[in-house]
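hey
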């Protein structure tokens, strides 16, 4: 993901989701009655999410699944919902120690914080006001994807960067397609978020590398469920 925050600026996020191509999910909406001002895509199998935004609070929470797997572990999709509800105290409400590795991001106009779990230790980083790239390797990591795309995200509109790519198995690819343990894995969703309290603008696509396939939505001054009812 890419994020940018600074004093007096709306929060901006680009979230790219990579997952098994056969795993079903629902598009962004108000799926959780217990969180009436929260919208996001929903994983149909576990009921959680990879990215949610609270319209009223103007903040978003995202999870990036790590490469480590743990048989029978709880779904990491509950983490963004816990973070959007409890804020920085989310870890008191979730038994993350039983989960496989992850990076969790809680972002608002006032700041962005990441937590990384490597199945041994939970570490926290508070980001400085700026533009950052976050992966499961950390914040602005020295990996091939960040080295290739961080300069582009700094100099070009994020939408243009994403739509000028194509799915690839290469480690430096922004949108991916590869085989993982006999299953097809790749980019299944992309979302641009601009958020401030009581105003949320999003644009998303299930084929984010293709220009013209993005859908725009906004929720100004209303709860997500009210917006969906029109």
């Amino acid at each position: 993901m890419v994020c940018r925050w600074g004093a007096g600026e709306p929060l901006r996020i680009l979230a790219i989701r990579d997952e098994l191509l056969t795993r079903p999910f629902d598009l962004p909406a108000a799926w959780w009655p217990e969180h009436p001002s929260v919208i996001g895509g929903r994983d149909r199998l576990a009921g959680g999410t990879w990215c949610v935004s609270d319209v009223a609070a103007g903040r978003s929470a995202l999870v990036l699944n790590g490469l480590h797997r743990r048989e029978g572990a709880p779904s990491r999709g509950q983490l963004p919902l816990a973070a959007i509800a409890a804020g920085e105290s989310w870890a008191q409400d979730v038994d993350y120690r039983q989960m496989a590795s992850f990076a969790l991001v809680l972002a608002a106009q006032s700041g962005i914080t990441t937590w990384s779990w490597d199945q041994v230790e939970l570490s926290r980083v508070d980001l400085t006001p700026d533009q950052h790239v976050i992966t499961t390797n950390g914040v602005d990591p020295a990996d091939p994807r960040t080295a290739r795309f961080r300069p582009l995200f700094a100099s070009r509109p994020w939408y243009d960067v994403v739509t000028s790519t194509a799915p690839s198995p290469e480690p430096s690819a922004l949108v991916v397609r590869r085989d993982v343990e006999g299953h097809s894995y790749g980019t299944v969703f992309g979302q641009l978020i601009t958020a401030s309290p009581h105003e949320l603008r999003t644009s998303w696509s299930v084929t984010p590398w293709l220009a013209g396939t993005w859908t725009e939505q906004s929720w100004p001054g209303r709860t997500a469920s009210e917006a969906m009812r029109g």
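Residues 2-229 form a domain with the Penicillin V Acylase; Chain A fold (CATH 3.60.60.10). The two ends are 30 Å apart (CA to CA).
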